[in-house]
Amino acid sequence: MSDSPAARLQQLFDGHRLTPTQRRIAHCMVRKAADVPFLSSVELADLAGVSQPSVTRFAVALGFDGYPALRKHLREVAPTEPSPGADEYNEYQQAVQAEIENLKHLSELLADPRPVEEAGRVLAGSLPLPVLGLRAASSQARGFAYFAAKVHPDVRLLDESGSMLADRIDGARRAGATALLCFALPRHPREVVDALAYAREQGLKVVTVADSAFAPVAGHSDLLIPAAVGTGLAFDTACAPMLLGRVLLEAMCDGLPDAQARLEEFDAKAAARGLFVD
User: Fold this and answer.
1) Secondary structure (3-state) at 106
2) C-alpha torsion angle, residues 192, 193, 199, 205 (rounded to 10)
3) What are the phi and psi torsion angles at 237 (to 5°)?
4) Shared-domain flag, residues 66 and 15
5) Is the pLDDT score of 81 beyond 70?
6) Choice between 277 and 129, residue whose per-residue pLDDT is larger
7) Please, are residues 256 and 151 in contact by the beta-carbon 8 Å criterion?
8) What integer pLDDT is reported at residue 135 of this predicted model?
């Protein structure tokens, strides 16, 4: 882990059993790590969309006497300066700036490459490799599966919900799959949580890209790597999860000895067919 304010907050929350409301507060604090030591409980509650008493109960759940004690602790262990105001930006620019912050947090997380490298080895070793993503996360799963199929011999996209989902997980397991990659973004469908629980019951190792380490899928993931989504527009934006997916692809390629040969073969065939316009 890096030693950024976000990483230190993450370490503070690790090991605590938090309620969904408390996970929401924790997620908000990680996203606003530079500002949190300077916020009142009312301001934090407003940012997280919860009640002020919920913030107080959250602080107590972490072992503090109340929110003032938590804030004092944060100022001591994670000293930082409050981020500059965004008054000079219009609402569209603020959404872009928020995504830039999400990418910065992802960069800080990747300062320790070991989780991604481990995930890459796990995914490379699974044949076939099922890739799950429903509703808002389906585009992330589809993008990963499209590129992964260029280097991995058998990628199976699971992007349709319904009673067949468990059957397709069974089919992948019978064919030899040892792992499943999941993209899980808000709002989190209950079916994704159930599918991950079922996949683990069948012996698959679950690697998850989620918007937060406190997402509902965390308890059903063997390895979860968080990448925050932007929430400043009417619909969430997911630049960081998409980039993390490409990083996982790179790590997976490192674990596939014939990845480069497969890419070169594809390029040769594409040139022969005149597939792309220069």
Assistant:
1) helix
2) 100
3) -115, 150
4) yes
5) no
6) 129
7) yes
8) 94
